[in-house]
Give the backbone structure.
Amino acid sequence: MDQQVDPVRGRILREATRLFAAQGYAGTPIQAVAEAAGVTKPTLVYHFGSKEGLRDAVLTGVLDHWQAELPRLLAAATKSGPRIDALLAALFAFFRSEPALARLVLREMLDRPDDMGARLRRQLQPWTALLAEAVRLGQGGGLLRAEADPEAFVVLVISAAIGVVAIGDHAGALVSPEPSVDAQVGELVRIARTALLAPREG
């Protein structure tokens, strides 16, 4: 049943996503999800079969959302050519707008790496290829450093984006004054841009 035409299912998924992101899958009782969604445990089980079925639906929904939205944002950012500034801005802004999703994916990468690896290969590699191709186009035009590894760069930038959005509020405690998440994201964009742009001659 489609989430958009079933408000009960959609509400359960929203609350499960929020709680799994905040507490982890193992730390979230299925009863807590049911109570947060305002339904009974039997109603939740009717829709998803089990807690594992709920987890699968949550992760599928998150990655489907990324799979649908990111190519659109990246295509809009590069409509006049492979502009790395626009790509980086669109990428970081997307993750910044969905901090709970970043936290959830980070938790799942650590807790169930094999399963998440398979999901990422299946659902996200097509759009990450767009980023790598943008780097290659920039290298071909002499705008970006020829020595950069496009795939490694994409992995590092996305990992950094997810990590900063997921834990930046807490990691800021490493220094004083504590930088905001926005400041950390801005610094990441600067670092990524500097690492890629070819030095100007003269």
